[in-house]
Design goal:
Distance between the termini of chain A: 15 Å
Order of helices and strands of chain B: EHHEEHEHHHHEHEHEHEHEEHHHHHH
Strand content of chain A: under 5%
Oligomer: heterodimer
CATH class of the largest domain in chain B: Alpha Beta
Structural class of chain B: alpha/beta
Order of helices and strands of chain A: HHHHHHHH
Largest sheet of chain B: 6 strands, parallel
Largest sheet of chain A: none
Radius of gyration of chain A: 19 Å
Number of strands of chain B: 10
CATH architecture of the largest domain in chain B: 2-Layer Sandwich
CATH topology of the largest domain in chain B: Beta Polymerase, domain 2
Distance between the termini of chain B: 23 Å
Shape of chain B: elongated
Strand content of chain B: 5-15%
Number of strands of chain A: 0
Helix content of chain A: over 70%
């Protein structure tokens, strides 16, 4: 088992600095919704890049300190990696197919994850089980799924607000939030991607449980453990959300709501895995 | 003496649900004017009925008919309503207030879309209809001619119409907020009139995959479809076309909704609830309001679009101020001109009658005073003239300077008519002369 290595002051400062950059970037992004100037666009972009670089620097430093380059070995790394994935994805979307205000919706999740990494990484380092490729595949796919579902939830929330504004017919003089179709497509794409990763995560997790047999950390009644129940619930929720293009009953707002509900359940699963005894 | 009044409602005082109940089509407007004339005799009237307003301009004898309650009843009878249904939404102007209001309307300062140009044509159309129906007379002829001139002046001398956000451009903006791309979208226009043409011109810029024009009159549909390389279909293919359409424009002249909740629910089922954007710019509306409650249906009527346009008004505040100044200057000029036209003959008549009485009395007195020298006679005549002039000076001055703060000018003139027993028919030729010289007013 890799010994638990809590983040040092420098790594915490980097993570907190990264969160600070994302907060400032989000604030400028909000201002940019009202005053869409090129200068503000470049400012937001450069601030977010700085935030991303600082979080990556913290991860690299922490890996060097641990003497192990396999990621996702403790709570600090897990949450920081998730935040980096989400921030990188947001920045990619804003570069490829910009959606006004998207960063303002997703960056708060990034900031919360970074703050969580700093706080829980220090207080509850939670070194994970001995690593192997099987375990790594399980974690990477599960965490990747959470990041994708985070995107889906943020974009879903944007969809709900944009749709409500259009229904109230009151948004013409308000800053645009991206059109409904693009938001819906992005939600669907994020859900599809997250669903695939989650499925891989669940299968690898099940494979590990089977391989461990009665010695599994979840105990003999693993099938009723909160982690397994929540993981399957999330999988079912997203399976439904994934079928929105061919399921009229859950199109549009219902699909957006499902993606938010799914993300809340996913976070609950993650919390049960990371912080509750016998959760993971 | 005639009194000028106006009774009406508009987008500021009544929602589209009420306005559509009171709206008049062109043939209905003419019939209404004739009916008003039949009911109230010699009054003058112009009926302005557009998507945003229904206003009845009336010139009547000072204590004549129709009074406000009679006009309310008249409108109620014509539209099959009870006066209570719309009374609280009505506004009324009289005398100078009518002039100011009409000039603002013609200048689009009272429009929901500030700077829109359509209202000027609508004012002119309303006036032409009244002229054809014979209900525009010496009061309303110059008023409406001047209103049209003021509207033109505002358009040519201010930037009010420049860079305005039109209903069509707002409709396109909403489409952009719903759809990401239009290369795979179908636009359906139900109706093939001017508004459909205007909206399609804007939507074509989005390069939709397909445009369908659906109309009761297939030839009209083909004519419009030809302009946009679109497909023309008859009204019987409407339901089928609706299922294909992502953007639906409706602008028919139907008096009842042609698309109801049940019909659209079926359409949405066929579409598997893919989002659809419905723009209903017809008044009365073509699409029942509850259609907008269906999931993934984004329904906008004319009021919704115009409210959005209103949000852009602040940007043209300076131009609006300039337009307001033009309107106020014209109101002052018109009122002064109108006052002079109305009171000139009356004052002449007042002087003539007073001098005539004075001369009669002087002659009678001279007859009783033999031996009055010509010089004395001249002195007495001058004395009589001076007395009459001095007696009339103050009241005439009050009439001339009257600012309407105590009573409308027409009431002063009416009082003078009654007090001095002046025959109104004697002034008729003068009024007719004034009417002929309306060119001065406009």
């Amino acid at each position: 088992m890799t010994p638990s290595v809590p983040p040092n002051a420098g790594q915490l400062a980097l993570v907190l600095g990264s969160a600070g950059f994302f907060i400032v970037g989000g604030t400028f992004s909000l201002v940019r919704m009202r005053r869409p100037t090129n200068a503000l666009r470049l400012t937001v972009k450069s601030i977010n890049y700085w935030g991303l670089c600082m979080a990556l620097a913290a991860l690299i430093w922490h890996s060097i300190q641990r003497g192990n380059w396999l990621p996702l070995e403790d709570n600090f790394e897990a949450l920081t990696t998730l935040a980096v994935l989400l921030a990188a994805f947001t920045m990619y979307v804003q570069r490829a197919r910009p959606i006004p205000g998207l960063d303002w919706f997703l960056m708060p999740i990034v900031v919360l994850m970074l703050l969580g990494a700093a706080v829980f990484g220090k207080i509850v380092p939670g070194a994970y089980e001995p690593s192997g490729l099987w375990e790594l595949a399980h974690r990477l796919s599960s965490f990747g799924g959470v990041a994708a579902f985070g995107v889906a939830a943020g974009v879903g929330a944007m969809y709900l607000i944009a749709s409500a504004r259009l229904r109230r017919k009151s948004d013409i003089d308000q800053p645009p939030m991206g059109n409904l179709e693009r938001l819906e497509n992005l939600t669907h794409w994020a859900v599809s991607f997250g669903f695939a990763l989650l499925t891989v995560g669940i299968l690898t997790g099940l494979g590990k449980i089977m391989a461990d047999g009665p010695a599994t950390k979840l105990g003999p009644h693993w099938i009723t453990s909160p982690k397994v129940i929540l993981a399957f619930t999330v999988w079912i929720v997203y399976a439904v959300a994934l079928h929105t293009p061919i399921t009229p009953a859950v199109r549009g707002r219902k699909s957006a709501m499902l993606s938010i509900v799914g993300f809340v359940l996913m976070v609950a699963t993650l919390v049960s895995v990371l912080f509750f005894p016998k959760g993971g | 003496m005639q009194r000028l009044t106006m009774l009406g409602l508009n987008h500021k005082t009544a929602a589209v649900e009420l306005r559509e109940k009171l709206a008049f089509s062109p043939p209905q407007r003419k019939a209404a004017l004739l009916s008003l004339r039949d009911r109230f005799g010699e009054c003058e009237a112009v009926l302005l009925s557009t998507c945003n307003r229904v206003e009845l301009y009336v010139a009547r004898q000072t204590h004549g008919h129709p009074q406000r309650s009679e006009l309310e009843q008249f409108l109620a009878d014509l539209r099959g309503l009870k006066p209570e249904e719309f009374q609280s939404h009505l506004y009324e102007h009289s005398e100078q207030g009518v002039v100011t209001h009409l000039f603002e309307v013609a200048s689009s300062l009272d429009s929901m879309v500030l700077g829109e140009t359509q209202i000027l044509a609508q004012v002119r159309e309303a006036y032409d209809e009244a002229t054809e129906a014979g209900t525009a007379g010496p009061m309303l002829h110059p008023l409406f001619q001047r209103a049209v001139a003021v509207g033109k002046q505002v358009r040519s001398q201010t930037n009010l119409s420049d860079g305005r956000v039109s209903v069509a451009s707002v409709a396109v903006e909403y489409a952009r907020r719903i759809f990401d791309g239009f290369g795979d979208k179908t636009v359906l226009s139900i109706g093939a009139g001017k508004m459909a043409d205007l909206l399609l011109k804007h939507l074509v810029a989005l390069s939709p995959r397909k445009i369908i024009v659906c109309n009761r009159d297939l030839e009209k549909a083909k004519s419009l479809a030809c302009e946009f390389s679109a497909q023309a279909v008859g009204i019987d293919a409407m339901a089928k076309s609706l299922a294909l359409a992502d953007i639906v424009l409706t602008s028919t002249g139907s008096t009842e909704p042609i698309i109801d909740h049940a019909m659209f629910e079926a359409v949405m089922r066929k579409r598997r609830y893919r989002a659809v954007y419905v723009v209903d710019i017809a008044v009365p509306r073509d699409v029942a309001a509850d259609v907008g409650k269906i999931e993934n249906v984004y329904l906008y009527n004319l009021d919704d679009l115009q409210r959005a346009v209103t949000a852009t008004h602040a940007q043209r505040g300076i131009a609006a101020d300039a337009a307001g100044t033009i309107v106020q200057r014209n109101v002052a000029e018109f009122v002064a001109w109108h006052r002079a036209r109305m009171m000139g003959p009356l004052i002449d008549q007042l002087y003539q009658r007073s001098h005539s009485i004075a001369q009669e009395e002087l002659a009678r007195t001279l007859g009783k005073l033999p031996g009055v020298s010509p010089a004395d006679k001249e002195q007495l005549e001058a004395l009589t003239r001076r007395i009459v002039n001095k007696l009339l000076h103050d009241p005439v001055q009050v009439i001339r300077d009257g600012d309407g703060s105590h009573a409308p000018m027409s009431q002063y003139l009416h009082a003078v008519e009654k007090l001095f027993k002046l025959e109104s028919e004697n002034r008729a030729p003068a009024q007719q002369d004034a009417e002929k010289s309306d060119g001065h007013a406009s």
